[in-house]
## 1
Amino acid sequence: MSTVIHQGRLDMTPGEAGFREAAVERLDAMLQQLICDHRLQGASYLLSKGCRTFACKAMGSLKYNDPLVPLKSDSIRRVASLTKWFTLTAVLRLMEEGKLYLTQPVKDWIPEFDQRAYEQINVFHLLTHTSGLSPDSGYFLEPYPFGRWEIEFAYGDEWNEDRPQRSPAEEIEYRKSKWIKAMLAGPPVCSPGEQWDYCSIGFVLLGEIIQRITGMKYEHYIQHTILEPLGMTRTFFTVPEHLHGEVCLTNEWEEKRLQAEPEPDWAPPRSGGGLYSTLDDLHIFGQMLLNQGTYNGVRILSRKSVERLSRAQYPKGLPAFGWGERSKANKFGLSTYLGKEDEPFKPHTIYHEGAGRCALMVDPDEDLIVSFFVPSDVGWVPNRSSMLRISSGRGYNESNNERD
C-alpha cells in the first residue's frame, strides 16, 4: 500500500496562514503510519484560512482491491452523515420562506405520527436527535441490532391474494407508509427532549417532509437549491458512471452501492447519509457557513440561521449514551457537534462526521475550515478522526510562540 503523498492545490503556505509547518509534517507522519499499519486504506485533508487553502494532501489507496491506484486530493468519497448538514440547510431555508417552523409537529405532514406515542415529536426534535425514535442500529451496543428494513414486511399486504388493486400514485403512497411505519415500529426510547440519541431515521423523515412541502424529490431539491448555486460540481447522490473510477471504495458493499440502480419514487429519501463529495466541494459548503450563509455572492442561508448552528440547543446538556460513550450532560448545536472543553477549539466551532470516515469542521474564530477523508474497512480506529481533527486545531501559533 503506497504512502506517497500527493500534494493538492495551495493558495498560500502554512506559515502565511499562521499555521506551523511542523504540525503539518507530524500530521502526515501520523497518517502514513496508520496506513502502513493497515489501520487506514488512505487519508486526505484540506485546511484553509480566509477561503485560502494552505494544506491539501492525499496518501494511500483509492480502491480496496487495487492498492496501486492512489487516493488523490480531488477523489470522490461517500460522505455518509455529512449529508445531514445539507438536510439541515434545506429545512432552515424552508423555515426562512415561512413554509414550516421548527417546533411544528411532524404529524402536520406525516399522518403516521398522529398517534399518542409520536404526536409530540416536532421538527426540532428530529434535527437535534432528541425525538425519542429508535437510534441508529447498534447505538446502545445491543448484541443483535436490526434496522427498519428487517421489519418492513410486517406492514405490507403482498402476501394477501385479496389485496386491493392500486393505481401508480396509490402504490407510491402505500409503499411510503410501509417504510414510515417500520421506522416508527416499537415504543420510543424516551419522551421528546429527554435525551440525545443519534437517529438517522429522523433525518430520513425530514427528507420526506421536504418532499411533501416542496413537491420535489429531496435529492432534486438539494441539487437545485444548494449544490448547483454553490458550484459543488463533484457532489452527487448518484455518481455518474464515467466518474466511478474516481470514487474511493473500501469494500465490496460500497462498490455494489455505487453501481446500484436508481431508487424508485417511493423509496426513502437519502437525507440521512446519501451524498458523495470531495474535499474541495466540502470546503465550499464550509465556506458558505463561515461566511454566514453566502458564497461567491450567492446566499443560501440567512445570517441568523447560521448563527443557530453553534448555539447549544440544551444549555445544561442532555443524557446521551452512544456506542459506549456515556454522557450525563451532552451539549450540541442544531444538528452539529460543538467544540468540547478538552479540545483546542473556540466555543463557536461546529463540525460533523460521517461513517464514510470523513468530517467537516468550521471554526469562525480562527477563520478555519478543515475537511478530511480517512477511508478504512477496519471497524474502529480511535485515533483516526479525533486526532486528525484535534491536530488541525492545534497547529496555530499562539502569541508567536511555537508549541507542540
Note: The longest strand covers residues 52-63.
## 2
Amino acid sequence: MRAASKRNNERGQILPLMGIALTVLLGFAAFAVDAGYLRYEQRVQQYAADSAAFAGAWQVLNGQTPTAAAQAAAAQNGFTNDGVNSIVTANTPPQSGPYAGDSNAIEVTVQVAHPAFFSAIFGRTKNWVTTRAVALIRGNSGACIWSLQKDLTINHGTVSSPCGIMVTRDVNDTGATMQLPSIGAGGSAGNSYPGVITTSGIPPFSDPCNTIPGCKAVTAMFPFGSTPGTGPFSSCGNANGTSLVPGCYNTISGTFDLAPGLYVVPGDFNATVTCNSCRSGVNGVTIVVGGNVNLNGSTTNIMAPPAQQGAGPASVTTAGAPGILFYQTSTTTSPENFSAQQLLGMLYAPGAHIDLNGGTSTLTISYVVAADIIANGAVVTVPSATCSSCISQTPVLAE
C-alpha cells in the first residue's frame, strides 16, 4: 500500500516539468521561425541595397546627388523610404568601411522593420534588419557618345574611343567594331566585345552639356527651350558667294569656305564647307542651327575651336578639347546627316536624330550628344586628348 500510495503522490509532478519544457521549445521554435523569415528578407533587402547603390553611383556620374535615385531603386524592389518602418539612406563618400572618405564611392543602407510573428509572444513587435552596399566608380574613361532619348544603331561601322557610350534604350550593333572601354544602356547593351564593359538596365541619366565647357557656353547664349534667333548678331542675312564670315544667316546652302568664328543659322544648313584658315588648337568654327543639318560631300573638312569658355563671334581659347562644331537648339527635332566628312569637334542635337554615314567618313569628334544615333559604315574616332574632362562612368559593387 505504501508503494502504491507513493506512486499516486508522484503522478502530477511531471506536468509542470513538461509545461516548462514546452514553453522553452516553443520559444526556440518561435525564434527559429522568425529567424528563417528574417534571413529570407535580408537576402531580398540586400539585393535592394545593391541596386540602390548602383543607381546612386550612376547619378553621381551625371553630376547629381545619389539619394533620390537610390531611394527610387529601393522602392522598385519593395522597400519604399517612409522614414519610419523603411529607411533608405545614401552617402557619398561612405561613412564607414574600407571606402570611408572616398569620393568615388557611394554607400547605401536599407533599414526595415519586419513584423514579429511567434516571437511577439515574448513582447517583441518588430525585428529591424539593416543591409548595406557600396558602389565604387572605377576608372576615368568617361562617356563621349550619348543617346539621350532612344537607341544607338551601328551597322558595319567602327567606333574607336578612349571613353564610353551611354544609351537611354538599346544598342543595336551589326557587324560593328567597338574599340572603347564601356557601354551603358537602359535596355540592351548589345553584343560583347573584348575589353568592353557592357552594362544593361542602367537608370536614366541626364544631358551632359553642363559638364562640357564648350556646350555650356553655347547653351548660355541659346537657353533650353528657346529658338535660335540671331544670337549675338543684330540681324540675319543671306549666304552669298564662295566664302562666309561669322554672322547670322537665314539658311546656308551651297559650297563655302568659312572663316573661323560663330555662325548662327535659324533655318537649314545644307552645304559643303571647308575652313581653310582654321588651325588645330588655335581657332575653328561653331555652327548653331535651328533647322535640318545635311553635310553630304567628301570635300567637307571643318573643325571646332578649342574648348570654349565663352561665346561670341570668334569665341576661341588656346587650350583644352575641341569645342562645339554643330549645335542644334533643344527645340529642334530636324535630323542631322553627316556623310563622307572630315569633322573635328562636338555634335550636339539633344532633340534630334544624328546619322553618321559612309565608309569614307572620318568623324574625329570630342562628343556626340543626340536624341538617337545611327552610324552606317562610318569610322568614328575620339582622340584621347579630348576626354581629359570626361566624367568617370563605370560603377561596380565593392561591398
Note: The chain is about 20% helix and 35% strand.
## 3
Amino acid sequence: MTEELEPKRTSRDLSEVQTQLSKWLQEKVGDRHASITNIRRPTGSGMSSETLLFTAYFQNGGVRDEHSLVARLAPAAEDIPVFPSYDLDLQVQTMKIVEQETTIPVPRVLWLETNAKIIGVPFFVMEQVEGRVPPDIPPYVFGGWLLEASPENLQTVEKHSVHVISELTKIDLASLNTQFLETEFLGETHLRRHFSAQQNYYQWVIGNNREHPVIESAFTWLEENWPEESATVLSWGDSRIGNIMFSNESFTPVAVFDWEMAGLAPVEVDLGWIVFLHSFFQDIAETYEFPGLPDFMKAETVKEIYKEQTGHTSKDLQWFMVYAGLRHAIIMSRINDRSVRFGQAIWTEDVDDAIPHSNLLWSMIR
C-alpha cells in the first residue's frame, strides 16, 4: 500500500517541520551549521503518535557526523488524536527503565522536548535502528518477509516476542519509582484501575454522539466474568509484533518501541494483547480469503512459551483476549473519527461497522 492510500494521520507539513527541527537542533547541539535532510514518514506503521525519520548532520568533538534519527511526535489536537493525552515523558522514562533493568533492546533516546512551541507539539528524538518490522498497513498476514518465513523462523519470532513480555515481569518494581505509571482512575487493584481507565476512554471517544453495541456488551461480559488477578508488573501496553524491529539477517529483535500505553497491570494484559492483535489481522486475512498465518501466535502457544521462560502459568488468558478486543475496538472507533475528519471514511447507520473486528469480538463474548 502506498503512502497515499494509507489512513491519514496528520495535516502537518513535512518541509515546515524540517525547517523547525533544524533550527532546534542547531541550538540543542550548539552548532549553527547543523542540518536535517531526508525527513520522511515510515509507511506501514501504527495510527497513534506520528513518527518521522531523518538524517541529521552536526559537529561532534570537532568532526561533523551523520546521524540517522527518529522523532516521535505527539499528534496535533486538530488531527483527532487517538488518545486523550500523550505523556512523552512517561514513554522516555519507561524506555530508560527497560534499558537499565532488562535485556530488551530499546532505541537510545537523545532528547526530550516538552516545549510545544518548537514544532507545535512535544516530541522526543532517538537513534534510528536498522531492521525490519511486520507492517500494519497492509497487515503482514497479506504478504512480505514474515508470511514467507519458515515454520522454524516463525517459532523464533514467537519466542522472542513473548520473551519481551517475560523480561518485563522480572523488573523489581519495589526498587523503582513507578509513580509516573500510576493511573488517576480509582480501583482496588491495578487491573481495576486499568479497566476504569478504559471505561473513561470509551466515554471520551463516543461523547454524546453514539454508542457501540459490541463495546457495551464486551464491558458487561468482562464485568460478569472478572478473572483471577496475577501480580502487577510493568506493562508494555501495546505488546505486538508490529512494535518490534527484527534483524535483517535473523528473526531476533533489535529494537522494541511504542511505549505510549505503558502502565502497571497483570502480565496477562500484554499476553492477551499480543495474541488478540494477531487474531485481529488473521481474521482480516481470512475475510478476504487469504491464508494468513493461522498457526502463529496462538493462545496455547503463547501460554506455553511464557511458562517455559518464567516458570509461571498465565491466568484466564481468554478474559484478557476479550479485554484486548474491547480496548482495540475503542481505538478503532476513534481512528474512524480521524478518517472522517480527513475525508477517508464516513459513519454508517451501524456504528459497529467502524470496528473491523466487531464480528470477532461478538463471537468471543457470546
Note: The CA atoms of residues 58 and 123 lie 19 Å apart.
